[in-house]
Structures are given as C-alpha cells and as structure tokens.
Design a protein that fits this description.
Layout: E1 7-8, E2 13-14, H1 15-29, H2 40-52, E3 55-56, H3 57-64, H4 68-80, E4 84-89, E5 92-100, H5 102-124, H6 128-152
Antiparallel strand pairs: 1-2, 3-5, 4-5
Length: about 150
C-alpha cells in the first residue's frame, strides 16, 4: 500500500514497492545453489574484499555487521583456508589489512558463474519487453548500489 511519504510524486515510484521487490529478489538470489558450499557470512566477506580491496578488521566489523571477535574468528578461518591474508597496513604499523588471495577471488568468481547458470533459464522465461525493461534498469540499480555503498563509508 502506498503511503504519502513512500511515493515519489515526480515518478510515481513507491519506495516500499521497490524495497519489497529487491528483498524478494535477494531472498531468492542469495540462496541459489552453489558448487562451493560456503556460509553467507563467508561469501559476504569475500565479496566485500573483492569490491573494496584490502580492508581493516574494524571496517569489516561495520560492513558485515558482526562483532569484533566474530570477524576476527572468521578472518582467521578464511586465512587458514587460503582465501585471505593479513598484511601490515602501510599507513599504520599497528593495524593490519585483510587482503583477498587469488583463491579467494576465484571463489567469488565461481559463485557469480554459478548464479549466472541458474539465472539464464529464468531470464529466458521473461518476455522480450521484460528483458528490455530489466536491461534499462541495470544502470539505475548500479547507481543506487553505489550511492548506498558510499553512504555506508
């Protein structure tokens, strides 16, 4: 249901409708089967490192919305598995940066390929007009994600 504060009068876009559509899509998308069985949290950290580059543990606490001990424990496990490595922060000798290894990058790329394989047949079920509409929305969704990431920094 559209409420006055949720409706952008210039476009008739209901923010609540957009939020629900994104949540429904995400609920399905993040649960797509994967060849590599890793937790959502592990995949999120690997994705964050792939997107942001080397990151301090304290920043991972904020982006991953986990406790400091939880992030430290997860990074220790990922390091043991060869997916990340800790290196001294060149700007602050007391801190370390968590870096994604090539193996960690490969995990993320594999996950993306797996998702693509599951999405392709679903995309084929859309009409040509639905595919055009989705294609036209991609730059806007990318911009929205960019604005959201910038706001969290």
């Amino acid at each position: 249901m559209t409420s006055p504060q949720n409706l952008d009068r210039a476009t008739d876009l209901d923010v609540g409708d957009l939020t629900r559509a994104i949540e429904n899509f995400n609920r399905f998308y993040i649960r797509l089967p994967s060849v590599q069985k890793l937790s959502f949290t592990t995949l999120s950290v690997l994705d964050t490192l792939a997107f942001r580059g080397p990151t301090r543990l304290t920043d991972l606490v904020r982006t991953e919305q986990m406790s400091q001990p939880g992030v430290t424990q997860l990074v220790t496990r990922l390091e043991r598995d060869g997916l990340v490595e800790r290196r001294p922060d060149p700007t602050d000798g007391r801190a370390v940066l968590v870096h994604l290894t090539e193996e960690g990058r490969t995990v993320g790329q594999s996950r993306q390929q797996d998702r693509g394989r599951h999405m392709a047949p679903l995309m084929a079920e859309l009409t040509a007009e639905e595919r055009r509409t989705l294609a036209a929305a991609l730059p806007v969704l990318a911009r929205l994600a960019e604005l959201g990431m910038r706001a969290r920094q």
